[in-house]
Design a protein that fits this description.
alpha+beta; 7-stranded mixed barrel; single chain; 6 helices; M1 Pyruvate Kinase, Domain 3; globular; two-stranded antiparallel ribbon
Length: 228
């Protein structure tokens, strides 16, 4: 992180971890075929161990595109729940509704930047990328069209890598301890990938040291004209 982050002069609380949600992969039938998915997360009480790859009791079904060190934890702002309740005319949401491990308050995508480091309980985590929804989110929501609506709204949440393992518990403060310098917000990075942008923006995104390699590759390819 040296040279890429500014240490904050105060220990202001930026947010709160209001729910920890975990779930192991299960097989369901969707569209007439068996699908293995870990999208179904449920709240757990008490301290939970956060390791390098995931939370205790959590798992991902397809490790080619989910999980790993750059996507160990998925955080989603609780503030968006009210938006989706209105959009979908539903009132049956529970924490973990969008497949998130951490349901949070106070951390919105236009304020959180790639590379920001947060202390949560005993652990430290770093923001790596926005979430690009796949068809399994549609399964979770009971609506195959929902992933497209989710992306269009740019209310994506974000993934975290674990810099320091430790115990976390619902109710923990989420404190930004390092602000990434010369970075881009989660919202802007998602827009850049899915709606496009300028060459300067692609160059900026490709230089972000904390950005997950898969997203950096997308921007690098666009700069060379080898990807759409």
């Amino acid at each position: 992180m040296t040279g890429h982050a500014d240490k904050l002069s105060s220990n202001a609380i930026d947010g709160t971890l209001i729910s920890i949600n975990v779930g192991l992969p299960r097989e369901i039938i969707h569209g007439g075929r068996a699908v293995s998915t870990g999208i179904f997360k449920a709240p757990v009480a008490g301290p939970v161990r956060l390791g390098r790859l995931n939370l205790a009791g959590d798992g991902q079904a397809d490790l080619r595109v989910h999980g790993g060190t750059d996507k160990a934890v998925y955080a989603y702002p609780f503030e968006h729940y009210a938006f989706w309740a209105g959009e979908l005319a539903r009132n049956d949401f529970s924490h973990g509704q969008f497949g998130e491990n951490f349901t949070t308050t106070g951390l919105l995508e236009d304020e959180v930047c790639i590379g920001d480091v947060f202390a949560i309980g005993e652990a430290r985590v770093q923001v790596t990328q926005p979430r690009s929804p796949c068809f399994k989110l549609g399964i979770r929501m009971g609506d195959d069209q929902f992933p497209a609506r989710f992306a269009a709204a740019n209310r994506t949440g974000f993934y975290l890598r674990v810099l320091e393992e430790g115990s976390v518990v619902a109710g923990d403060a989420i404190e930004r301890v390092e602000r990434a310098a010369d970075s881009m917000s989660v919202r802007d990075v998602f827009r850049l990938r899915h709606a496009g942008g300028t060459r300067a923006e692609y160059e900026h995104a490709a230089r972000l040291p904390a950005l997950s390699p898969s997203w950096r590759t997308v921007f690098e390819k666009r700069l060379t004209g080898t990807s759409n």
